[in-house]
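Whether sequence alone determines local backbone shape is best considered at the level of individual chains. In the encoding step, the backbone of a single protein was reduced to a row of integers, each denoting a local shape. For completeness, the protein is quoted in full, as a sequence line and a line of structure tokens.
***
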Amino acid sequence: MKSSSARYHAIFSVALTFLYVALYYLSDWMAGNEALGGIAGLIFLPAFIRLFGFLVIRYWVMPALFVAGLFCVDLGLSLYGKLLVSAFLAVGGPFGVFIVSRLCKLEPTLSNLTPLNLLWLSAGCSLGNAIFYHFGLEVAGYDDHTPLAHLYIFIGDMIGTWVIVYAIKFAMDIASKRWLKF
């Protein structure tokens, strides 16, 4: 990998870290990030960053997600618990996207990305995150969660991802209409 490419990925990773944390607090303000089952929210906007980051910079998104997790994961965990849960969260969503991208035979250039593939990728990302979050909490010794809460995580991640996808689409539609007027 060229040093300029590594520098690009590192800068993009830092930007994704900041965006993840900002979306985390926006999500918390909108619907509460721990409103369902004590660990999940109905709308979790940062879930989009897991999917988008992996599609754009692949595995470089994992350090960004880990650092962002350190700013977002609390649940009364010790520092060791936060580190563990953040590590599991950094891997889960991207791993789900990786598996589904292989099943869909997604090209690295995303040239064959379709709306249906995007739906499957977001489901894989959400499922991977919910499973790894569960394991992370178990390893960290956090007992106050149920399987139903992880279903809420999956649903909140899916809704959050698609809220951002449609917000981007809406912004692009408005921008293209304004651009056509010039």
